[in-house]
Specification:
Blueprint (H helix, E strand, L loop, with lengths): L1 E7 L2 E9 L5 E5 L7 H4 L3 H4 L4 E5 L18 H14 L5 E6 L1 H12 L4 E7 L12 H14 L3 H6 L7 H10 L2 H11 L2 H4 L12 E6 L5 H8 L5 E5 L4 H5 L2 H13 L9
Parallel strand pairs: 3-4, 3-5, 5-6, 6-7, 7-8
Antiparallel strand pairs: 1-2, 2-4
Helix pairs in contact: 3-4, 5-8
Length: 268
């Protein structure tokens, strides 16, 4: 595993490179408050060893820069951060695979920088249709953001609607800057206004959405996806963390999607 750094407008972005140097490129983007270890510690790298995998700590997370200014987390900013990594690796186009918040960013890439996106893979991501009322998840996140800005983790978790194991919460508290997290949430709440219907709108980029039937937002997501042309897989996972914790099952369905794409896939 090679650890590298890309420069961006909002500071350094740390990422690792693993797998086949001549393989198609996959960019992995973790969920909110997670980092690249969310993928690597569960064995995703090994299961994707025939790909060239760029596993990213997004700005505001992990070992990357953690600015407190909301301008570092707008739609243009987060997409620009992905492009910075691709540019650093001299990659023309890649499969952008994100989980949860990372899936939102993958969807934005598919619409805002389609030429850099061979496909967009979005797991456990609570999309909502343009003009729809806020989802349960987004409403609850709003209630917790003030707690984060004050460094009040207990208050934040009390308002957090997605069930997470205690060990995951403890790790997030140890590895995150709460003020940077608060800025990311506040900026992220405007993404649907900045790019209405993102992730669900028609685009030239092939898109794949997977989620567990036990997700707290599964019903809302089904409604949002009903009019989307993205390929969808609803699996037996019982919750949000449980989906991420099944790399064998997840990689199997993602591989099926990727292997059905045109052979030219990714160019480097």
């Amino acid at each position: 595993m090679e650890r590298k750094t890309a420069n961006s407008e909002h500071g350094p972005i740390v990422y690792t490179v693993t797998g086949d140097a001549d393989g198609q490129v996959i960019v992995l983007l973790p969920g909110f408050q997670s980092d690249q270890t969310g993928w690597s510690s569960r064995g995703y790298h090994e299961l994707l060893s025939d790909y060239r995998v760029l596993n990213v700590d997004p700005i505001g997370h992990g070992k990357s820069a953690t600015p407190h200014d909301e301008s570092a987390y707008t739609t243009d900013a987060v997409v620009g951060h992905v492009v910075s990594v691709l540019d650093a690796e001299q990659v023309d186009s890649a499969h952008i695979w994100g989980f949860s918040r990372g899936g939102f960013i993958a969807g934005l890439c598919a619409e805002l920088v389609a030429e850099r996106c061979s496909s967009a893979i979005m797991g456990g991501t609570p999309f909502r249709a343009a003009g729809a009322a806020p989802t349960t998840v987004s409403e609850e996140m709003d209630r917790g953001v003030r707690c984060l800005a004050d460094g009040d983790w207990a208050g934040y978790w009390a308002a957090y609607v997605i069930p997470l194991p205690a060990a995951v919460k403890e790790r997030f508290e140890k590895t995150n800057d709460p003020r940077a997290n608060a800025a990311a949430i506040r900026a992220g709440r405007r993404w649907a206004t900045e790019v209405p219907g993102f992730g669900l709108n028609p685009t030239s980029v092939p898109r794949f959405v997977y989620f567990g039937s036990g997700e707290v937002f599964a019903g809302e997501l089904r409604d949002a996806l009903a009019t989307s042309d993205a390929e969808v897989f609803e699996g037996p996972w019982t919750g949000h963390a449980e989906t991420m914790m099944d790399p064998d099952g997840v990689v199997a369905v993602v591989r099926s999607f990727l292997e059905g794409l045109p052979s030219e896939g990714t160019s480097v």
